[in-house]
Amino acid sequence: MYENPEIGLQEYKSSKAHKDILKKYGFSIEENFLGFETAFKAIYKGEKPGPTIAYLVEYDALPNIGHGCGHNLLGTTTTGAGIILRNVVDEIGGNVYVLGAPAEESFGVKVDMANNGVFNDIDIAMISHPNSRHQLSGTTSELVPLRFTFKGKSAHAASSPEKGINALDACIMLFNSINALREHILDSSRIHGVITNGGTAANIVPDLAIADFYLRTPVLGYMRELKEKVINCGKAAALATGAELEISIYEKIYKGMVTNKILSNIYSKHLKNIGVENILEGEISHGSSDMGDVSQVCPSIHPSFAILESHKDIASHTVEFGKATLTDIAYKGMEETLYALVATAVDVIINEDILNKIKEEFNLTFKNK
């Protein structure tokens, strides 16, 4: 896959490679899953009843960079974990799902999976991402993309400006209000935006102005308040200028990643059991991921694994990071996380009390949210 990088929703060869090996090991495959040509759902049902474990697979590359985010290694890891777990569920019970989720970098197909009930009957879901270090699952930010469209009235800006309603003025007021608002929101939240339409000529009062914003927060439940405050900034700008205002969602909403701590602790235990040291704690990320939507439907973790020597660091989304996925150190890190992913699943399957505690934590986390 490294030699044949494919961008989101065009991962035909990569998707086929995963499906072919899963078929070889007895998985039933649903192709063109949810209408996405490169998505798939692979299922192996054990001979004995038990929990259902899902592994998420990514295989999309970056334009012009290739596998600079390491999804060639990520997909290999979780598909491999699914195959190994499949080899024991006939004995210990349970079912294995391996879900091919294309376009993580662009279209976020896991959001569609979550919205279509794919995870409703899954007990736990796991994925692990290449990184400079082994790191436990953390938190990502919920993302809401808001578009503000101000409609005014055009007029000659020199001879009759009083006859116009300046949509661009409203848009600028929106930005100024949001800049003042930043002092009064949680420090971990982010608001960033651009003006995508601000008029056509300097001597014409703009009758149309459009601004696109991303609202982000890693704090579960805070987006409702943040969104209301930003929308009020837009309404105030429209009222002050006399412009009409339309507010819309222009891209997918991503929910924040909520790590199940009990599940994460089990994963960490198994890494330590095989001698992995210097495991970083999960962090609060200001970025967003479609795995967040999964984590709010079923207990989930999204750790990362080391592909570099401990004294080295390479930024992801670079050609250099992609090359690092081909090293012996990267393969060693992959084997370590793969072991922990499978061992964690086995613990959940054979110990009903562990699964009950995982679900109890999940239910308490989302109570009244």
Question: Helix and strand layout, with pairings?
Answer:
Blueprint (H helix, E strand, L loop, with lengths): L11 H13 L3 E4 L8 E6 L6 E6 L13 H22 L2 E6 L8 H7 L8 E3 L2 E3 L10 E10 L15 H15 L8 E8 L10 E10 L5 H19 L2 E6 L11 H13 L17 H5 L4 E2 L2 E3 L12 H6 L3 H23 L1 H14 L4
Parallel strand pairs: 3-4, 3-5, 5-11, 6-12
Antiparallel strand pairs: 1-2, 2-4, 7-9, 7-10, 8-9
Helix pairs in contact: 2-9, 4-5, 6-9, 9-10
Describe this entry's structure for a reader.
The protein has 369 residues and is α/β, with parallel strands linked by helices. The chain folds into two domains: 12-140 and 254-365, Aminopeptidase, CATH 3.40.630; 142-249, Alpha-Beta Plaits (2-Layer Sandwich), CATH 3.30.70.360. Helices cover 37% and strands 18% of the residues. It is built from ten helices and twelve strands. The protein has helices at residues 12-24, 71-92, 109-115, 167-181, 223-241, 261-273, 291-295, 319-324, 328-350, 352-365; strands at 28-31, 40-45, 52-57, 95-100, 124-126, 129-131, 142-151, 190-197, 208-217, 244-249, 300-301, 304-306. The strands form three sheets. It has a six-stranded mixed β-sheet, with helices on one face. It has a four-stranded antiparallel β-sheet with strand order 8-9-7-10, with helices on one face. α2 (71-92) links the parallel β3 and β4 (95-100). α2 packs parallel to α9 (328-350), α6 (261-273) crosses α9 and α9 crosses α10. The longest helix has 23 residues, at 328-350. The model has no long low-confidence stretch (mean pLDDT 97).
